[in-house]
Amino acid sequence: MPDPTPDTPMIEVQDVHKSFGPVNVLQGISFNIQRGKTCCILGGSGGGKSTLLKVMIGSHPSTAGSVKLDGTDICCQKGRDLDLLRRKFGVMFQSGALLNSMTIQENIALPLQYHTRLDQETIDTTVKIKLMQVDLLHAADRRPSEISGGMQKRAAVARALALDPRILFYDEPSAGLDPIATSRLDGLINQLRDTMGMTSVVVTHVMESVRRIADHIVMLDKGKVILDGTLDDLEASDDPRIVQFRTGETAGPNTGTTSNEQFLQDLLQ
Amino acid sequence: MAPGSPKPQPLPAHLLGGIGRWTLGLGPGSLRLLGVIGQNWQLFTATLYWSFVAPLNPKQPTRLRSQLFGMMTNVGVRSAPIVCLVALLVGAILVLQTGETIDRFGQIEEGPGLVALSMTRALGPLMTAIVLISRVGASYTAVLGSMNINDEITALETMSINPIGYLVAPRFLSMLVMTPCLVVFAYLLGMTGGAVVAYPVYDIPFSRYAAKSFEYLTMPDLFAGIIKASVFGVLISIVSCYYGLTSRGGPTGLGRNIMVSVVTCLVVIVFADAILTALINNYLF
After folding, report:
1. What does pLDDT average to over chain B?
2. Which residue of A has its CA nearest to B162?
3. Beta-carbon separation of B151 and A95 below 8 A
4. Chain A nearest CA to B19, separation (Å)
5. How high is the ipTM of this complex?
6. Which of A93, A123, A143, A153 should we substitute to test contact with B (largest number of B Cβ atoms within 10 Å)?
7. B interface toward A at CB cutoff 8 Å?
């Protein structure tokens, strides 16, 4: 296993392909993410960003290519080695994916009880610290169904932080949240980067969030990378696909429709 | 063909097409069935590992003990009232249905033996299994299926928590242990149900009923039912967990899988009962 140094990227995605039967969802994705940076993976629905996230966390095996997390290729890992590698990162799922049969506190304690030999008192203290980090100490004894969507997502972040990972993956963190809850979650992502040096990978399509949190942007379209750069590169790009995504226009190459004027002209020709 | 006899009519094209499609469908259908059986076998072997081998390995984290008590309470204590009620009624019905015929031959005194043997060798385990399929098996499929749809199982995997060890093994063990216990209740309540009806209808007092029952019963009869119950417990837990873990397609897919799980469990249990009865009667007791 190569010895990772601070200069090497935390995540290296190299020529990743993923097919489901005859459908090629990812077609040679490559990019690097530096340590302590927040990378936003953007793209329209069906662009392959959720599939890419599942390949990156080892839930789906890639058809070809490699994803190195802190120097270790997750695509080659199986069984106990994969389990050990997975402890280096946490994942916040779109739905939160908290276990509904447990309280928030029990949800966060679960990975600690499973993977550490800490006594119950130390686990309780650690859980309290994690809950304070996401400002949810008051909801410790509630079940996921008894709290709001934004609180569920912050609780999911606290659970993902339980084993002190070095990388956090977020799948559509803003989905289903009001603007205030979205802004609060974005603040939490920034706070984790600034205070703990967390490397974050955020799959999203919400431009306001991207402007608040992104150090690095990777944009996908039809399974290919069409932008690998910074927020400034995104704002300056004149690629019609990126322009349409940035401005939110309904007519453009991403939707396959044309403007009203163009539609009239095409009709009258 | 005799001259003048009517010509045989050709089969309608759509009927032939239907038979052709049905025949062609047999191949993929059989392969799918084999695939499902293979996946259930894989789940069974993995569950055996997580139930009996992994807890002995200090490096392999499991939380079996902390979950087992709650699961066993759910399967055993909470199912006991309904199992007892069903067994009581089945015992009573047996006496009512068979009593008249036996009485015609002047053998009503042997009725308790018939109820005792029916309850221990056949009906006790079968009725207990049917109650557990509807009460516990369906809930296993529903719980694991909704966890799957809500990404909770993927979340467990990303926390390096094996879903089979965490979710299936405790359910499997609690069914394996509690189903035979429930069957013992079913024996007792079935015989009690028979006695309750036999006294007013055929004038057999409780003491004579009990004495006659135990005159017929032997230890192998009791063990035959317990062996069957253990196998039924294993089958119900594996099949219902399998359909939960493979749920796809939101609430509609989950509803379909719960239905398929219950029906499959019922069919599997009846098949297993037939095979076990033949094996036990011929080779064991």
Report:
1. 90
2. A83
3. yes
4. 30
5. 0.83
6. A93
7. 61, 63, 143, 146-147, 150-152, 154-155, 157-161
B233 pLDDT exceeds 50?
yes
Could you give phi then psi for residue B79, rounded to 5 degrees? Answer: -90, -20
pLDDT averaged over chain A? 87
Q: Which chain A residue has its CA at the smallest distance from B150's CA? A: A97
Helix (H, G, I), strand (E, B) or coil at A212: helix
Can you give the pTM of this predicted structure? 0.84
Please list every residue in chain A whose beta carbon sits closer than 8 Å to the beta carbon of residue B151. 93-95, 97
- Cβ contact, residue pair A91, B155, below 8 Å: yes
Task: Spell out the long-range contacts of B266-274 with Cβ–Cβ below 8 A and sequence spacing 24 or more.
Answer: B266/B130, B266/B133, B268/B235, B268/B239, B269/B126, B269/B129, B269/B130, B269/B133, B269/B232, B269/B235, B269/B236, B272/B228, B272/B231, B272/B232, B272/B235, B273/B122, B273/B125, B273/B126, B273/B228, B273/B232
pLDDT band at A2 (very low <50, low <70, confident <90, very high): very low
Residue of B nearest to A159 (CA): B159
Q: What share of chain A is helix, strand, coil (3-state, %, to 5)?
A: 40, 25, 35
**Cβ–Cβ < 8 Å for A190, A212:** yes
Structure-model confidence comparison of residues B19 and B164, the more confident one: B164
Of A38-42, A102-106, A179-183, B227-231, least confident by mean pLDDT is A179-183
